[in-house]
Structure formats: C-alpha cells, structure tokens
Amino acid sequence: MSESHKFLKSKTVAIVGCPFSGGQPLRGVDTGPIHLVEAGLVEQIEELEWKVKFDGHHEFEDVKAANDPPIGILKNPRLVSRVCKAVSAVVGQHAKDGHLPLTLGGDHSLAMGTISGSLSMYPDVRVIWVDAHADINTIASTGSGNLHGMPVSFLLGINKRPPPEHPNASGYDEAMAEYSWVKPQLTSDRIVYIGLRDVDAGEKRILREHGIKAFSMHEIDKYGIGRVVEMALDHVNPKRDKPIHLSFDVDALDPTVAPSTGTPVRGGLTYREGHYICEAIHETGCLVALDLMEVNPSLHDAVAVSQTVAVGCSLIRCALGETLL
Ligand SMILES: NC(=[NH2+])NCCC[C@H](N)C(=O)O
Ligand SMILES: [Mn+2]
Ligand SMILES: [Mn+2]
C-alpha cells in the first residue's frame, strides 16, 4: 500500500450501516447511519483515496424478535443479541477480506458485535473506547437495563452470577445463554478509555477491580489531549505493532459540539480534542476497524443535527487520514 498501513490488504473501507436503537430507550438513533451517508460520507472517504464498499444499510429484518420481553432487568435482550451477532459476522468478514470495517450506529450496544468481529480476525486487537461513559455495566451492576451501557462487560467476560438475593439475580442464566455467542476474548489490559465523565458507581468499582486504564476528562485537563493519547497508546500498544479498533461514541464530545445524541454529558471533548484522537490513531498505521456510534438525528433542531452529523463525518475522515496540512 502507498501509505504505511500495517495490517490491511488494500486501502478499502467497508461501511456497515447499522440503523439500530434496541440497546437504549430513545427512537431515532437508528437513523444516524442514514444521515451520515446522506451527508456525503462515501464521497468524502473516496476523496481521501480509499475505495469504499457500501451496499446499503443493514435492516436486521430476519433478527427482529417478535416477542422480546425483558430477561431480568435487561431490555430488548434477544434483539440486541441477535443484531450484534449478525454485525459481528459482517464486520469479521470485512476484516478477513483485509478491509477496514467502518460501523455507523446506531447505539453503542452494537460494539459487542463490531469488536467480536474484529477479534475473529485479529485476536490480539487493542480497543480504544472514546466515550463519556464506560459502557461496562454487568448484569449485576446495571441500573437501567439498557444494553448500550453494557457491551464491554460481555466482551471481557466479567458477568459473574449475582447472589440469589441480588435484585438483578433473576434471568442470569437465560441472559448468559442468549449472549453465549460473545466469546470473552478481550482482556482488561487491551482496552483503554478516553473522555469518561459519567461513570456509574458500580462501573467505577469494575474498572478498579480489573485494573482497566481510563483517561477521564480530568486527565485530559491535566495533561492535555496529546499526552493522554500517547499514554493511552503506550498502555495498550507500546510498540505500535498491534491492530487497533477505535470505538467512538459521539457523546464523548461536548454537547455544544455534538448535541444530537441520546445521553449527552456536559464537560466533554472539544472539537479539536476529538479530532486529535482520530488523527493520532491514524498516524499509528494500526487502525483496523472504526465505530462511530450514538448519532441521534431525531434529537434537537435541524441545525444541531447537521452539526452533529458533520462532526461525525469529519471524525471519520481524520481517522482515515485527513490532515490539516
Ligand atoms: N452508550 C451510551 N451512551 N451509554 C450510556 C450508558 C448510561 C448508563 N451508564 C447505563 O448503563 O445505562
Ligand atoms: Mn457509549
Ligand atoms: Mn456514551
């Protein structure tokens, strides 16, 4: 390849459009991918001299469970599981073809599928999770039962059985059976977080217990984004010789920058900080998969929506090599 990319066979992006909202309660996040593509994303990527494969958004018609009552506290458990399993197969196939899967969300539960897909091709993949939230709740720790707050716990395989008197104890076996396709292949030293600022008490305990490295907004204020990205890469990929999956939740950005998202949290990344992360990861030559999640065009007015969609497109371009000069 002309550019030094360490893992891909060809400079091809495979867009996996996932209009899916089952991991959280708000409608509209399922139209995120449609808006991103309509804003000209394909052409923008082609201009960066990538080939783009895109055969339309996934509809998941075959997996829409007619009857999907909660399992214990978990909401839409079968639908989320089956959609993620389908996404995992698609992302995994693109990765095996030597292309770079770009998944457009849709809510962040989808990352269970995208990262499982990356792991099937690259068992030693490193995950950089950019988000206001840790999305690491377990069956025992979740308060909301929304699966977009839980994908990392399944990928790590840390869902322990709650004691029988625990309020979330019921349904544990059924839930674990439904999610048994998720191979707990990710290890806690191969994921790093950037941008956290709304982490549930139970999640803080999980992060501590498993020694998971996280750079919250506090560390970004303290060290600056340049040092933080360098430290994050040094933690998961010190020699810059391992593949990287970047899972970017648009709510990592400050709501003034990306307002149209379901769970905005103030005090987030600036426009430049978000873009810097993508640029610096591109520079490693290690990026093998990218997720851009939680764009919800049904929230806020048209100006806010087009602002959020435009930011989403430009984050993607930077991760794919767009530079300022
Ligand atoms: N992907 C997201 N926006 N996640 C928000 C998660 C919020 C909360 N921690 C929960 O588990 O419900
Ligand atoms: Mn998220
Ligand atoms: Mn989030």
Automatic annotation (TrEMBL):
UniProt GO molecular function: arginase activity; manganese ion binding
Q: Which residues does the record give as Mn(2+) binding sites? A: H108, D131, H133, D135, D249, D251
Q: Which UniProt keywords apply?
A: Arginine metabolism, Hydrolase, Manganese, Metal-binding
Highest taxon, organism lineage: Eukaryota
CDD domains linked:
Arginase
Q: Reaction catalysed by this chain?
A: L-arginine + H2O = urea + L-ornithine
InterPro entries in the cross-refs: Arginase, Ureohydrolase, Ureohydrolase_dom_sf, Ureohydrolase_Mn_BS
Q: Which Pfam families match?
A: Arginase (PF00491)
The protein's required cofactors? Mn(2+)
EC number annotated for this UniProt entry: 3.5.3.1
Instruction: Kindly state what the record says about how the cofactor is bound.
Output: Binds 2 manganese ions per subunit.
Q: In which pathway does it act?
A: Nitrogen metabolism; urea cycle; L-ornithine and urea from L-arginine: step 1/1
What cellular component terms from Gene Ontology apply here?
Answer: cytosol; nucleus
Q: Which GO terms describe its biological process?
A: arginine metabolic process; urea cycle
Family as reported in the entry's similarity comment = Belongs to the arginase family.
What's the protein called, per UniProt?
A: Arginase
Native organism is: Exidia glandulosa HHB12029
